[in-house]
Amino acid sequence: MHNCLQKDQLLVKVNKLTSTKTQLPYSYYSLPFCKPNTIVDSAENLGEVLRGDRIENSPYVFEMREPKMCQIVCRAQVDDKQAKELKEKIEDEYRVNMILDNLPLVVPIARQDRDAVVYQGGYHVGVKGQYAGSKDEKVFIHNHLTFLVKYHKDETTELSRIVGFEVKPFSINHQFEGQWNDKNTRLITCDPHASKLVTNSDTPQEVEAGKEIIFTYDVGFEESDVKWASRWDTYLLMTDDQIHWFSIVNSLMIVLFLSGMVAMIMLRTLYRDISRYNQLETEEEAQEETGWKLVHGDVFRPPENSDLLCVCVGTGVQFFGMLLVTMIFAVLGFLSPSNRGGLMTAMLLTWVLMGLFAGYASSRFYKMFKGSEWKSITLRTAFLFPGIAFCIFFILNALIWGEKSSGAVPFTTMFALVLLWFGISVPLVFVGSYLGFKQPAIEAPVKTNKIPRQVPEQAWYMNPAFTVLIGGILPFGAVFIELFFILTSIWLHQFYYIFGFLFLVFIILIITCAEITIVLCYFQLCSEDYNWWWRSYLTSGSSAIYLFLYAGFYFFTKLQITKLVSGILYFGYMLLASFAFFVLTGTIGFCACFWFTRLIYSSVKID
């Protein structure tokens, strides 16, 4: 927080160049912009580096509340390679991002339909256009910037605080008198003494090899009523709250419908079933038993690939813990967008620390399934998901590096990630596993028969593939509207800050996953099919398939990505996100079903 007196120096920093068309960030100085005498990197946190932020100093230096007009930054000669670079970046609609007192630079755009101003983050490097009477498309660079710094002044002291940083970019082919002298050249096209200021781009600066470009700027200051504490509000009021409420009401309808079904099963069916089973008197009635009680001797038989199921559940618990802790911090306001990279850093650190719970959960289930090699299950829990994620991340990073983008994670950061994984996460998984394995094994409420019972032929609608795919629709339906906003914030570079809504949606997702799995599990047991372990995991986990399909739909309808590398990046990261969503929702469904089966079988007297 900076309190500034009049004439205090204000240093503008530059950040990466970004484009929603390519998703590949580049360093500001990769283009022939004016450079300061020495370029100094600002220290970035782990989250910022992973996002591709590269914050450096710039030749733009203002003085507080001292307006300046037609300031020359530098004159640049553009060679063939630089002209080609500039044209490519302008074609791909790259934007320049700057920062003043931790506030990102925005371009105000008047919206005709709403009589309101919306803010676009960063200004475009340039534009494509035609000269009047010509059909040839030319490329023009924005070489004159009109900055507006808004400040809030303290009435009692003379101190001011910066509350807004806006720019209007123009393209102008500057002309000057006489010989070029860096400091004292007078421009004909922009001269405050002759009251000639840049207000339009009628004589634009074309990008051509061998041509020189003169970079200039104006800076104005405007007093504002906005207080320092609420200076981010203009950046964040870009989306409509009504849609989020609609999303939550839509999700609550699904939850109420499912809760009604679960309540009916619990009250009507189970109550009736349990009371009837407990009052069986004659042997004839005992032989006529039908439904879920018939499979009591097989329902807790360990499933095939039980080790993998334990690993998946452990990883899901780790994800659940990470999301829960991160969201609580975000809702309490610790991870505001002004803290760049904070969300990413928090998620990584909580993921690493939650390894303790992952190890504990996987070893508890492993012991219940009569497993004895707890170290092997621990290693698999510690390496399965992070290993897959790291391989995908490494391949994608190599692609970004091949494009010479600043989004490529440097070797030192990669080493720090490996260190977090091997130095903290893996040992914590071992500690959790050790503690879990020392606990007594979870006892099944009923004895398991030695010989497995034959599963009768099932109706078509009880086919595993069918029920699994049906089960994923409702959890996905509960979150898909909020998903649209999350994808927009990631891929269209907008701020996402409505963590209160997100937390509500997360709770709704948990309830939906649990309830749909319980309902389908009950129907499965009633048709005398006791193979519920994996089915319960896959039922809610299949919502990840719909998530990935939706990501594909979003790619083709909302994004204008044309580059192959950018497309691979998008689908690579969305595949990773879908895999994480599968593990999370599957674990929620599995745990709900595990609780449900233990509950119903412990309520029945088994002879």
Automatic annotation (TrEMBL):
<feature type="transmembrane region" description="Helical">
    <location>
        <begin position="382"/>
        <end position="402"/>
    </location>
</feature>
<keyword id="KW-0967">Endosome</keyword>
<feature type="transmembrane region" description="Helical">
    <location>
        <begin position="458"/>
        <end position="491"/>
    </location>
</feature>
<feature type="transmembrane region" description="Helical">
    <location>
        <begin position="414"/>
        <end position="437"/>
    </location>
</feature>
<dbReference type="InterPro" id="IPR004240">
    <property type="entry name" value="EMP70"/>
</dbReference>
<comment type="similarity">
    <text>Belongs to the nonaspanin (TM9SF) (TC 9.A.2) family.</text>
</comment>
<feature type="transmembrane region" description="Helical">
    <location>
        <begin position="341"/>
        <end position="361"/>
    </location>
</feature>
<dbReference type="GO" id="GO:0000139">
    <property type="term" value="C:Golgi membrane"/>
</dbReference>
<feature type="transmembrane region" description="Helical">
    <location>
        <begin position="308"/>
        <end position="335"/>
    </location>
</feature>
<keyword id="KW-0472">Membrane</keyword>
<dbReference type="Pfam" id="PF02990">
    <property type="entry name" value="EMP70"/>
</dbReference>
<feature type="transmembrane region" description="Helical">
    <location>
        <begin position="568"/>
        <end position="596"/>
    </location>
</feature>
<keyword id="KW-0812">Transmembrane</keyword>
<keyword id="KW-0732">Signal</keyword>
<protein>
    <recommendedName>
        <fullName>Transmembrane 9 superfamily member</fullName>
    </recommendedName>
</protein>
<feature type="transmembrane region" description="Helical">
    <location>
        <begin position="497"/>
        <end position="525"/>
    </location>
</feature>
<keyword id="KW-1133">Transmembrane helix</keyword>
<feature type="transmembrane region" description="Helical">
    <location>
        <begin position="537"/>
        <end position="556"/>
    </location>
</feature>
<dbReference type="GO" id="GO:0010008">
    <property type="term" value="C:endosome membrane"/>
</dbReference>
<feature type="transmembrane region" description="Helical">
    <location>
        <begin position="245"/>
        <end position="267"/>
    </location>
</feature>
